[in-house]
Recover the amino acids of this structure.
């Protein structure tokens, strides 16, 4: 079958399933077969740590196996369709339909059409109600499961929060399933949300009247799962791809969650509370993983690695243990402060990669408003020190359309970049400008997004005025993200229409078709502005009101500006 | 540290792994060397790299029976146990055939390549498989004669370089197993992709060669 595909696609290496440390288990003698799907191209999917952890946990069980599937490239998709080959897993090359469970990771809202596309390529009915027990159980988890409602018609069960423990509970429950009783038993597992067991009623104005569980035993509130990081499973023989991928190194998660609570940021809700892996455990994992992978670089990953308690000692110990073996250490994201820069200098990231900072807002005032406390002075002096230490490229992330943003805050972004640029002529900046999208489970969840015309104007203005290369998603794709991140289950219809009309890979600029999306909204008689531009009352029942991600509504209300 | 030994590792590349390109294969081999704990030497400087050289890039999809890498080492190694150690760390389809010591000061073998022998299986044109146009062996042999009778055959490679390939063809003939045997001269390290030559020879579309197996059999050295 592969021979029918490989000669005709531009990146055949994506479909081989022969990575180092790949697990091939015996199909016939294994009771529960799980396909893990990252609904985007291989190079992105293989870089995802969460799926690697689940792959490792499931394959570590005697009774189960896990195989992988990614969204095929468009050229491969054509061939599959042309030859009538149903989408298959990379390991055993079996059709996805033959698996017991298919698990999708929801990394962002713009991947939803790809999920439908994967199901369709696998000849699996899109909607849960059209699938009987002969089809695999379709589950999903990850950051966007924090408001899974737009996918409620398609996914049988969502996993909220950390997946390490709950995946094993799902497998156990699956093994003991009885006819027609699987979903009800799954709903009893803490952290598992079965959308079809809930009914949503709407008021005349379109807001939610109530969300109610059907029948006994459906929990009123589903609380996300939190694991103990120190004792939880971590892959000691992670998959090593044979072709290059976006994060081609040993990824070591040193901390989950973030000690800061920036008001715009959903990550704290999704990954919190902040927990660390001990230095001892990290060194053990690294030792085994280097041996099993042959990697020469380790990334100490987390949402804010420089906040790891004793990060300097951790880095020193890594350099002592592994440095002489020509191994380098990298930190993925740095705060624009002196301490972080000192760390970057210590691990000699100079010239290897650019330096990446995320001030998010241009003025100190606005940064304080969103909870990002870094002064202009500290930022500017950090950049100067970085220049003196040898960096010539600095990447910066800013958001536009933040609540409380004034015209001068846009000017402040220009000032903040121009200052160091004027001082150091051959220091180059790459600036990414993103439109602020209000997210569920944050203090900003009730606020409207700024309108598209204004966002477009600000972005164009910055692109013209900043002495830098300006990048970023289109504001139209941020608009769509805003619809789906705070949307309800009525959006399922729009999603299916947009997909049927050809939308997929929406995250990719070259594939994103805002015109088709607009057509899909209009054909479904759904007004996207309702989800994007409307300020919600703090008493309003939100589509995710029954899902608890750490902070309660009351806490979030108090933290509003 | 100064390198004190240089070895040549010969290996073959077969099966799905032939769809791993040159650069990716290099990294795959580097990781395998690291897992196998071979005392490889690194270059000095800011970004240390493993000191080694590889046989010329193999076109994507080609199998090979004759790949090699030449590797500098910081310590002397036992050849036979090192072959075993390395083999254990290689993905399926990569097989070490031979490891031998080289003079530490010799040039890379790449500059000594005189010609490259390819084996191209044309059995699909025999009529046994339904994939493509049928041709008799005599047809193909006649095409070869006509091809070789020409003095100039200008072909353009993927990078847009146009070359007269006729003088590069040292020999071209069918064997009894439907294999086209092609011996191509390598001038100054330049290797013309035989796929383009075979496509022109047979007068077929690129698509029709999709299932044809190309194998790099061996290098001939000066």
């Amino acid at each position: 079958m592969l021979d029918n595909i490989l000669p005709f696609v531009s990146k055949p290496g994506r479909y081989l399933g022969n990575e180092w440390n790949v697990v091939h288990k015996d199909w016939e003698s294994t009771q529960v077969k799980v396909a893990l799907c990252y609904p985007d191209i291989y190079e992105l999917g293989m870089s995802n740590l969460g799926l690697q952890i689940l792959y490792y946990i499931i394959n570590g069980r005697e009774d189960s196996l896990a195989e992988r599937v990614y969204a095929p490239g468009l050229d491969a998709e054509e061939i599959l369709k042309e030859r009538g080959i149903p989408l298959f897993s990379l390991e055993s090359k079996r059709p996805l339909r033959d698996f017991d469970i298919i698990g999708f990771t929801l990394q962002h809202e713009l991947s939803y059409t790809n999920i439908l596309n994967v199901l369709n390529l696998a000849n699996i009915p899109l909607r849960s109600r059209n699938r009987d027990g002969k089809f695999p159980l379709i589950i999903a988890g990850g950051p966007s499961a924090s408001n899974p409602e737009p996918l409620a018609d398609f996914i049988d069960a969502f996993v909220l929060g950390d997946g390490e423990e709950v995946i094993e509970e799902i497998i156990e429950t699956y093994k003991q399933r009885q006819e027609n009783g699987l979903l009800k038993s799954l709903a009893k597992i803490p952290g598992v949300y079965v959308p079809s067991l809930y009914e949503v009623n709407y008021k005349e104005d379109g807001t939610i009247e109530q969300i109610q569980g059907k029948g006994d035993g459906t929990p009123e509130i589903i609380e996300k799962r939190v694991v103990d990081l120190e004792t939880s499973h971590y892959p000691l023989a992670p998959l090593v791809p044979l072709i290059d991928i976006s994060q081609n190194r040993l990824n070591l998660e040193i901390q989950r969650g973030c000690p800061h609570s920036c008001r715009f940021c959903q990550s704290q809700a999704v990954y919190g509370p902040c927990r660390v892996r001990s230095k001892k455990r990290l060194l053990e994992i690294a030792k085994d993983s280097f041996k099993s992978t042959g990697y020469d670089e380790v990334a100490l990953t987390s949402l804010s690695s420089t906040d790891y308690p004793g990060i300097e000692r951790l880095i020193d110990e890594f350099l002592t243990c592994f440095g002489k073996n020509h191994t380098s250490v990298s930190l993925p994201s740095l705060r624009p402060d002196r301490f972080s820069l000192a760390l970057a200098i210590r691990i000699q990231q100079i010239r290897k990669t650019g330096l990446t900072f995320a001030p998010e807002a241009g003025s100190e005032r606005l940064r304080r408003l969103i909870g990002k406390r870094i002064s202009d002075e500290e930022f500017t002096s950090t950049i100067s020190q970085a220049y003196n230490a040898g960096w010539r490229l600095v990447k910066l992330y800013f958001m536009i359309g933040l609540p409380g943003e004034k015209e001068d805050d846009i000017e402040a972004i220009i000032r903040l970049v121009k200052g160091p640029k004027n001082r150091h002529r051959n220091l180059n900046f790459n600036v990414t400008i993103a439109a602020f999208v209000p997210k569920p489970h944050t203090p900003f969840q009730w606020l409207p997004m700024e309108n598209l015309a204004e966002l477009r104007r600000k972005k164009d203005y910055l692109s013209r005025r900043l002495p830098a290369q300006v990048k970023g998603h289109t504001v139209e794709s941020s608009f769509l993200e805003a619809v789906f991140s705070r949307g309800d289950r009525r959006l399922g219809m729009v999603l299916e229409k947009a997909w049927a009309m050809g939308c997929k890979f929406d995250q990719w600029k070259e594939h994103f078709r805002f015109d088709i999306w607009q057509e899909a909204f209009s054909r479904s008689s759904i007004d996207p502005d309702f989800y994007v531009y409307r300020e919600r009352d703090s008493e309003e029942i939100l589509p995710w009101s029954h899902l608890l991600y750490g902070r309660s509504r009351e806490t979030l209300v108090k933290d509003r500006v | 540290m100064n390198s004190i030994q240089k070895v040549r590792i010969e290996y073959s590349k077969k099966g799905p792994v032939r769809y791993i390109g040159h650069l990716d294969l290099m990294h795959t081999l580097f990781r395998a060397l690291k897992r196998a704990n071979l005392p490889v030497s690194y270059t000095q400087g800011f970004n240390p790299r493993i000191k080694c050289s590889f046989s010329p890039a193999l076109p994507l999809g080609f199998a090979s029976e004759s790949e090699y890498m030449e590797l500098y080492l910081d310590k002397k190694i036992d050849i036979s146990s090192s072959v075993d150690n390395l083999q254990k760390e290689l993905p399926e389809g990569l097989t070490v055939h031979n490891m031998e010591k080289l003079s530490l000061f010799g040039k890379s073998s790449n500059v000594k390549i005189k010609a490259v022998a390819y084996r191209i299986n044309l059995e699909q044109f025999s009529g046994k498989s339904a994939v493509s146009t049928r041709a008799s062996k005599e047809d193909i042999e006649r095409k070869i004669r006509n091809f070789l009778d020409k003095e100039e055959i200008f072909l353009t490679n993927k990078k847009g370089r146009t070359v007269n390939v006729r003088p590069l063809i040292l020999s071209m003939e069918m064997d009894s197993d439907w294999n086209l045997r092609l011996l191509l001269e390598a001038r100054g390290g330049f290797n013309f992709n035989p796929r383009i030559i075979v496509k022109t020879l047979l007068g077929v579309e690129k698509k029709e060669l999709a299932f044809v197996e190309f194998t790099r059999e061996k290098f001939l050295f000066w």
User: Anything to note?
Assistant: The mean pLDDT of chain A is 94. Chain A touches chain B through 26 residues (CB under 8 Å). The CA atoms of residues 269 and 551 of chain A lie 7 Å apart.
